[in-house]
Structure formats: C-alpha cells, structure tokens
Specification:
Elements (H helix, E strand, L loop, with lengths): L9 E3 L2 E4 L5 H7 L8 H5 L2 H12 L18 H11 L3 E3 L9 H4 L7 H23 L7 H25 L7 H10 L15 H4 L7 H18 L13 H21 L1 H10 L7 H19 L6 H4 L17 E5 L13 H5 L16 E3 L1 H4 L32 H4 L20 H4 L4 E5 H16 L1 H15 L11 H15 L6 H8 L35 H6 L19
C-alpha cells in the first residue's frame, strides 16, 4: 500500500484542506506531527485506530461543525429536528425562540447558514469516515481494523443515503421551480461523490452523480460492511453491526421500491447503468420486507411498552437513553458534549426542563399539530404524550406521565409534548439533564417498513395484517385498518408512523419518498402565523429540495445548484 502522511490535507468538496480535525490530537500522542507518521504506521497502532474510529462514531454528537457557534449546530440529531420542522406536525409555541425556523418559515433557503451547514456537516462527517477507510489495507491488516472499516462504511452509507434524498430535486408542482430544474438538467441528480482517494483537482470539478450511481455506491458499501462485520460483536449500541446493516438495507430497498413504482423509467436507467440485481419495484419491496424481518430477528429489540414510552416508573428515561429496549442504534451523550445551557439539543426539545428555550422558563415548546392529534384514537395510550386542549390549566392527575409539579403542568399550552425527557429526570442542571442519547434507529421502524413493503409486494391484505398485528400487540388492541387499496393503506400506515416517530427526524424521508403534501394551514390550525405554508397535493414540498451551498459552487466548478425554493408558497390565511 502506498504510504501517505496522516496529516496530509484532503480536499472534501468545499471543505478544502479539511484534515483529520477530530483525531489528530489523539494520534499525535502516539505519533508526534513532526514524525510524519504514515498510514501504515497509523493502521498498526491500536490507539491511533481507536481514535480514528471515535472520530467517525463521535461525529454524530459533533457541536459547531459549521464553526460559527450557532445554537442549532449540535450534531446529527439537530438536523433531524430540522427535518421535523420541514413537515407538518412539529410546531413551536413561542416563535421568538425558534432557532430552527428557516424551514418553518420557508424563507431565505439559498444563502442561509442553516442550509449551508447541512451540506457542511455531512461532508465533514464523510471526511472522518473516508480518513479511516483510506489508511487500512484490507488485505494486510488485523481483523479489528477490518471491522473498523466495516463500521465506517455503515456510517458512510447512512451519510450518502441521507444526502442523496435531501438534495435530489423532485417536482414541486410550481412551474417556476420545475421548469428551472428541467432547464438546468438537475432531475435525477443527487450529490457529488467524495471517496477516500479523491484528489484536490477532482474535488474542484466534481459533478453531482445520477441516482443510479449513488444507489450502487451505497449498496456496495453496505455489502462490504456486511462482509467485514460478519464476526463482529458490538460492545455498545452506538456501534453498528449486522443488525444495523440490515436495517439500513430495509430503508434503502423501500426507497428504491417506491421510486421504481412511481417512475418505471428510472428502473430502466438503474438497470442499464448500475445494475442492482433487481428487475422490478416488487423485487425491491420484497428485499425491504426481508431485511426488515432480518433486523427485527437479529436485534433482540422489542417495541416500547407503555411504561417504557413514558420513561419507566419514575418517568426518567423516555426517549433519552440508548439502553431502552427498542433502540437498535443511537448516539451516547455525556456532559462533555454539553457546551452551555443553550448549546444542547435537550434544551430545544424537552418540555420538562428549565435550562433551555424549549422548557418552562422560555416557553418555546414543541407541539403536535392539531390535525394529527385529533386523529389519534382515545384508545391509544400514546395520545397522552401530548396535552389535550381540554386539560389545559388542570393538574395532570393520573392521566399524564410528567416530571412537572401540578402548578407547572397547569401552565402548559394545548398540544405540547411530554415525549422527550431530560436525562435522569433532571429538569434544572443542564450538565445532568441535557446529555440525552439520540436515536438513530429503533425497532418499530422495521415493523412499519415490513408492513408497507408487504402491502406493495404481496398485496394490501398482507400489509393490513402486518400493521394490525403490530398495532394490536404493541399500541392498542382495538386498532383496525379498513384500507382496500395501496394508496389508502399508505395513508393509514403513515398516520400511525407520524404519531409513532413524532420529533425523531424519520418522517421527512417518507414525505419526500411518497411525495406527500405538507398541510400546515387549515381552519383551527395551531401552526404559528408565518409557518402555514401548504404544498401542492401529489408533489414534493419545495423546501424539501435542499439548495446545496453557495460555497460548493465557488469551489467546485462541476456543481449544478438546485432552484432556490425560498418563499414560493404564501402563508395560508383564513
């Protein structure tokens, strides 16, 4: 293998001269910088390789990746919160403290720090994965190093799958945007590929690749990871293993199944240009169902019980601990990941705390949409995750599972959530309450993927049976699904999926995949004024098509930017 200095600057898209910022200090403890340590030396050092791995896994929690100290620049889960804001069920009560409002207001979505930072974060994350993959010669290394490469490839597959879906332009139903996209030739294009061997010259003229190229790249990484992790037993759930490979493959094949179902010509392009070994959308759905089943069987995880959902007998652990049985994969947070009472995700997300803007002190609570709340069955125990309007101003009694005193609970507005709890139930001390673990995958998602994939491949009745079995077993026994068509089944399934994964950053992918409209404005809406944009039925919401970053167009002459989706839909008014 060719020797390379580990401190060599690697160009990553517009991240010119981005070195191994997250690992260099650790590596220097073993190999001082002036020693010109080679990649072979690094690969032979267990301490250095552990540092390289930590840089990949730890970047999920990376604060200030954009470098400007923004309140929302808090790592992967923070961008999941942005995805929630893009949709129609995740509102804010006090908009004056809304630090995630770019995609809520849908204004200034081109030259905007929040938009730019998404691209920046993902490519910086990718750089860490590439750095590890680059230095290991798989044919001449240890089994541990091979497993580290497998882990890095899982993360790289996740990164590229996210980015391909975020940045690919889908039709919006707005002629100004759709015509511009056609004129620019951006339909079917995803993102530039940055692999572990890219040169600066290549990065400076690196076009967006077609969907069929990135899909093949992602699947190759997942297949490789599957081989490399065959004998891997992970020590903690922040490390991906074969179960997570199966889970991502389930997501992957569901995405492709829907694409090829809606656009058969895309299947032809995929087969002709980068064959994935499938010949129909049905093949993709069958794979999605099989991998979802495999993930469920392998993980040993079980869906959250009512007690676990609300945080156990003391309400301490709800949606904040990777130890929860249903969590398949997540990030592990500690107080070192908390930089102030402001700079932490829990301060934005958790209602039952006093240290951040999302809590009782500032009132920037996150609310479920009135329209979704009203569709939750009274038999469904998940409904008391949110405060019903008829209970505002009352004590919680035994109905609600809360850390609040009676007096503080009475101050809460209608539809506010009690889902995400501060760590250890500590509502006051950010050092203790703020470092909540973050979900990357929980087993319930696999049940939903399986049900939809079965409906699309084996018939609606198969999907109905799977969905009813999940709901009756794990959510409420009186649930029934009356759907007789695939479209109606998807509506029923998506209703439950929106309830199940509210606030977790999952639902955006389904909205864009299925080209579901976003409806925030309607009579009686609890969406704040200025946020009430409704997208066009049957099309992708314009703001779902990310613009990219102007920094990329400055440094990469091969890039074609998406149309600017800013302010193309007016705020709904009664």
């Amino acid at each position: 293998m060719k020797k390379k200095n580990i401190f060599q600057k690697i160009v990553v898209a517009f991240l010119l001269a981005a070195a191994i910022v997250n690992t260099s200090s650790c590596i220097e403890e073993t190999f001082p910088e002036n020693s010109s340590a080679t990649s072979e030396q690094i690969a032979e050092s267990p301490a250095a390789m552990q540092a390289m791995l930590n840089a990949v896994v730890g970047f999920v929690n990376a604060y200030n990746a954009y470098g400007q100290g923004y309140t929302w620049d808090l790592g992967y889960a923070s961008y999941g919160m942005i995805r929630e804001v893009m949709c129609e069920d995740f509102y804010i009560y006090q908009s004056g403290y809304d630090y995630y409002n770019s995609f809520g207001l849908c204004r200034s979505l081109a030259d905007n720090a929040q938009v730019n930072s998404i691209y920046y974060y993902y490519y910086k994350f990718l750089n860490n994965a590439n750095n590890l993959i680059r230095i290991v010669d798989l044919e001449n290394t240890t089994e541990t190093n091979r497993q580290y490469v497998g882990i890095a490839k899982v993360y790289r597959a996740m990164i590229y799958m996210d980015m391909a879906r975020l940045f690919e332009f889908k039709k919006t139903g707005i002629a100004k945007l759709d015509d511009e996209a056609a004129a620019k030739g951006v339909y079917g294009l995803t993102i530039p590929i940055i692999d572990e061997n890219i040169t600066e010259a290549e990065a400076r003229n690196n076009p967006r690749v077609p969907f069929y190229t990135i899909y093949k790249y992602i699947l190759d990484d997942l297949d490789s990871a599957e081989t490399l992790l065959a004998d891997y037993s992970r020590p903690t759930k922040n490390m991906p293993d074969l179960t997570i490979v199966a889970g991502i493959k389930a997501r992957f094949w569901l995405e492709l199944g829907t694409r090829f179902e809606k656009y058969p010509s895309d299947l032809t392009s995929q087969t002709q240009n980068a064959d994935l070994g499938i010949s129909s959308a049905k093949d993709c759905y069958e794979k999605a169902a099989n991998y979802a089943k495999q993930a469920i069987a392998q993980t040993g995880a079980t869906p959250l019980t009512e007690l676990e959902w609300f945080g156990g007998k003391d309400y301490f652990t709800a949606f904040n601990s990777i130890q929860t049985s249903a969590w398949m994969w997540g990030s592990i947070m500690n107080k070192e990941n908390i930089y102030s009472v402001w700079l932490n995700l829990a301060g934005h997300l958790c209602t039952e705390q006093t240290f951040g803007v999302g809590g009782i002190s500032y009132g920037a609570h996150r609310l479920i949409s009135k329209a979704l709340f009203e569709q939750i069955s009274d038999d469904d125990w998940r409904k008391v995750t949110w405060v019903a309007p008829e209970d505002v101003g009352k004590a919680p009694g035994t109905k609600y599972h809360t850390l609040f005193s009676d007096n503080d609970f009475k101050k809460l507005p209608a539809y506010v959530h009690l889902k995400f709890k501060p760590k250890e139930g500590n509502m006051i001390d950010a050092n203790v309450g703020a470092p909540i673990d973050n979900i990357l995958m929980r087993v319930e998602e696999m049940y939903f993927i399986e049900a939809e994939a079965l409906a699309a491949s084996q018939g609606v009745s198969a999907g109905v049976a799977a969905l009813e079995n999940f709901m009756k077993t794990y959510r409420y026994g009186s649930y029934t699904c009356q759907a007789s068509t695939l479209d109606d089944f998807r509506k029923a399934l998506m209703l439950q999926k929106r309830i199940e994964f509210w606030g977790e950053g999952i639902i955006y992918w389904d909205y864009k995949r299925l080209e579901m409209s976003v409806t925030r404005g309607y009579p009686g809406t609890n969406c704040p004024v200025g946020y009430r944009m409704n997208s066009i039925e049957g099309y992708c919401a314009p703001w779902f098509n990310l613009f990219f970053s102007k920094f990329e167009s400055i440094n990469n002459q091969g890039i074609i930017l998406n149309p600017d989706p800013s302010a193309v839909i007016e705020d709904w008014t009664e």
